[in-house]
Protein 1
Amino acid sequence: MSESEPGAGTRDRILVGVDGSEDGLRAVRYAMREAKASDADVWIVNVVDDTMPVGGLWELVSTVEALRKVGEEYLTEARQILEVAGIPPERVTSEVLIGPPGPVLAELSEKATLMVVGRRSMSGLERMFVGSTSLAAAVAAKCPVIVISAASTPHVTGGLRKIAVAVSTWPVHDSVMAWAAKEAALRKAELRVVHVVPDTLGMEAPRYAAEATAELERQLGPFRASHPDISVTVDVQAADPVNALVEISKEVDLLILGLHHHRAALGGSVRGVVANAHCPVGLAD
């Protein structure tokens, strides 16, 4: 385990939250492949939640210490995955911290270039809550976030060599496209830029779709010129946004949602996509 100060090195750093679940280990494996492709360091963190109600002070202390020990076991398992994969130990930092997991991970993300968190699979109305820890971390993160579920994506992603980035408003954010370009270059993947026109527009939808396609092509002109090695396609659809993006998630290795406003204001559509996607979902603003 590296004891270096997070963010002190020259490499990019990928922050991973682990909690002992298969979803957390899925996040570790995903981060491992990302680190190998980008030559980044990996920072594994288990956060012990000390906000849970307990009977008394002694019970609180003993419970936190017991959870800290369990957290160390989670980190050991995660480090073993990275070691077997060939990530040098000096490029791995791991630690157990105390506090509410979501906010703690979000605060740490300021020292990371990417955060990967697991999303526990749920059904029915529970899906709209996505998972309290992963969502709390994602909405307040200071860096791009990838949310992944072991249940929805048990396979190793990357075989399709396709990435989609969904944009909802103009202008298209340069930071979102820069991240999408980086991921596409690392994976040698095609980049599909998606905009969904609400199907509630009725007969006006085709006109709006045509106008959106023309505007998107115009805005992507400089991007295409600066990234000639990346194949970029434009996909404008008139459909329900959540359903359309969930369907697209079946066809790509990563779906990036470009958020026009600060992600703390995540609406139901974004939550719905994250909760139901069939591939890892990236959030960036």
Note: The first strand starts at residue 13 and ends at 17.
Protein 2
Amino acid sequence: ALRFMVQQRSGSIINIGSVHSTATLSGAAPYAAAKAAVVQLTRALAVEFSGYGIRINCVSPGAIATQIWRDAEASAPDKIEFLRRWLGHIPIRRVGRPQEIATVVAFFASDEASYITGANLVADGGMTSMLTGSESSEEVRTS
């Protein structure tokens, strides 16, 4: 894609990272390392190709209601405890919807984002902004 974009002297690439690029869990080292690499690759390529009119950005989602989330929820021995534990780490107390990530991607691809390159937008309901891992006693919402 870059060859074509260089020839036309314009383009937009949106990579998909993860909150694991900045905060992670035990047992997720390979995934976290790969996602951190995606964020750095985004930054390096943005610098390298900005002179060709190519913008390169990254979206790093948190917990999103995808098949991976549904599988994890379904395999949990106690669904209520699973939701309490996970949503207790998300300040807005819900899992994101795939459409919410698609909206961010569409924004980055649009002319509205013409002055943005090398950015990593974290869309995680505030998960990585929490200062502690303590869980809230507030009731959680699932939608």
Note: The helical segments are 2-8, 29-49, 67-75, 79-87, 98-109.
Protein 3
Amino acid sequence: MNIDIQDIIGIVKQGAEIATARNFSISQKAGVENIVTSTDIAVQEFLCNKFLELIPESGFICEEGDLNNQSSAEYVWVIDPIDGTTNYARGISEYCISVALMYRREVIMGVVYNPVKKELFHATKGNGAYLNGKAISVSNRTFDNGILCTAMSLYRKEHAKVCSDIILDTYLKCNDVRRFGACALELCYLASGLCDLYFEYRVMPWDYAAGYLILNEAGGTISGYNHEALKLDLPTLLIGANSAANHSKLVEIINSHIDPKTCNYDWREW
């Protein structure tokens, strides 16, 4: 099937018009930290309908939906209609729409769009990564001059201590730390050289699928725990860096704080 990335970009930008209208209500999914807006639902419904027109009988893995309906389709869309929902709900500009297209379980296209800043990141497998049509690449900074993007396991706060220990240990060895509140955007910032390191204890496929491809195509390195390959169908611990050497150093720091044999190794559980 011949699929044009520009068709996906066009649909994502149409979906962004729903978000920027900012006519929404808010409800809680599981506690005050985990909210959903009516915009999340509306954007996801719009995108799914449009992508079904583009590829009939394609499958979906979406944040606001039944994860058991991933289907065995050759083509599967991985969608976060609003990554950074809390930012969006509060009027903070760091949010985006994130869409990845998988073919036979491999990500082949990714689009991440921040409609406030008009930043459109995209990649197709084997063809590089782009921001607003211009090629991007990771930085060449060393670990000690690197900036780490990270988070504190917001929806599983029982893991805050191990996260904070890893963050502090990394902070003492790198330049500084940032927390933007949107995984897809942070991976794109890493891909475009704005930051250099990434760690999060537990993220979902829709958070990272598009950013995973964009970062890979920009020359970065990304994996799960201890260099494990990402499967894109389960929650994961996520580690990214601008180089293989910096990635390995970050893996070493994380491994010094996490032992799957003795810790609650539950990032794989829904």
Note: The radius of gyration is 17 Å.
